[in-house]
Design a protein that fits this description.
The protein is mainly α. 58% of the residues lie in helices and 4% in strands. It has one domain (8-346).
Length: 360
């Protein structure tokens, strides 16, 4: 493996598209070789953009953001192109009878769900791949889980942040369609994702992204309502998959991982990383003065507790929504009562969301 240096000082951050390798000494652990997974994004950092972003990111205390600013912008651009013109073109081909008759507001809502569908499949697939491919994750101690950084984890953080840059832009331009609640959600989620570039609990970023494994099934459920498939056997089977994925990923796996994250953050409050050689390691951006401020711990823990509570509430509402479509003698509803199409609800910094109701 090629070895390169990764330094972060004041106004400069240097990283190459190769792996980082070094030897690190951790407290209570044997001396070991560290191989930090590189950023697998197909576009390398753009030098002039990275240089332009560095001073701003340093002032904001987000030293890893310049390494991924191009990914944030690329993701936002990709989702914008999917929203328009790809979604209208594809939707008119696949569902001309339904999409073609929709008024402006309902078309925008449809297109937003197309973006959500694409983004949830993409980000979940990448997160699972990183969790298996990034060997360094498996040997991280609590310090590395809190302050550590790898290029692949940073990429996941950037792609998720890019979604909310797009979400903020589209919502702001179509406030009459999506409402102030969705706008506030986009702002809050983008701010929360940005905290991950301190870096802060990047390890848990991929884990909490997996809360969204239920989102594709939810979007399928929503589209079935819109194409006159409400109450069909296909929607019933999809509903079972939706409930199973939501229950297992959010209520079981998500709650368990939240407790582990709470444990690591509690250990980090008023603590500092163990001093030692970090120049080329997963702790390259940590210093002896690094700590987790009380306000950051409180924001993270409070938002995560809120979100976990909402998950249980949403699960109950989803059961009711699925049942209504198959109870005899009742008019089937055509609006998913709980819209969890936003991937923000389970990111590393514990974004707080509200159950959204995008009007159809």
């Amino acid at each position: 493996m090629l070895t390169v240096s990764c330094t972060c000082s004041g106004s400069s951050v240097h990283r190459f598209r190769t792996g980082l390798a070094c030897t690190e000494q951790d407290p209570g652990r044997q001396r070991r070789d560290v191989s930090v997974m590189k950023d697998p994004f197909f576009i390398a950092p753009i030098p002039w953009l990275t240089h332009w972003a560095e001073p701003w990111c340093q002032r904001l205390g987000l030293p890893t953001l310049p390494l991924h600013i191009h990914e944030v912008l690329a993701a936002a651009l990709l989702y914008s192109v999917i929203f328009w013109p790809l979604s209208p073109i594809i939707s008119n081909i696949l569902a001309p009878r339904h999409y073609g008759k929709l008024p402006r507001k309902r078309r925008l809502n449809w297109d937003a769900h197309v973006v959500s569908m694409f983004q949830s499949v993409l980000i979940n697939g990448l997160a699972i791949w990183v969790m298996f491919a990034d060997d360094e994750r498996h040997s991280m101690n609590w310090e590395e889980r809190v302050w550590g950084y790898t290029g692949a984890a940073g990429m996941i953080q950037a792609l998720a942040a890019g979604y909310f840059v797009w979400d903020l832009f589209v919502t702001s331009l179509n406030l009459d369609v999506f409402g102030l609640g969705t706008l506030a959600h986009a702002i809050a989620a983008l701010l929360v994702y940005s905290l991950g570039f301190r870096p802060f609990v990047n390890y848990y970023g991929c884990i909490f992204i997996l809360w969204e494994l239920s989102t594709p099934f939810l979007n399928v459920h929503w589209f079935m309502d819109k194409v006159d498939m409400t109450g069909t056997r296909a929607q019933l089977y999809n509903g079972f998959l939706l409930l199973f994925s939501f229950f297992s990923c959010r209520l079981i796996y998500g709650t368990y991982q939240s407790l582990l994250a709470f444990r690591d953050i509690w250990a980090a409050v008023n603590s500092h990383p163990f001093p030692g050689p970090r120049a080329n390691s997963v702790m390259a951006f940590a210093t002896d003065e690094s700590t987790v401020p009380v306000w950051l711990a409180v924001v993270y823990l409070a938002s995560n507790v809120t979100l976990n509570s909402l998950n249980f509430y949403w699960f109950i509402m989803m059961i009711r929504a699925v049942r209504k479509r198959f109870e005899p003698g009742k008019q089937p509803v055509t609006e998913v009562e709980v819209d969890l199409s936003s991937v923000a609800s389970g990111v590393s910094a514990g974004a707080t969301t509200q159950p959204q109701r995008r009007k159809a």
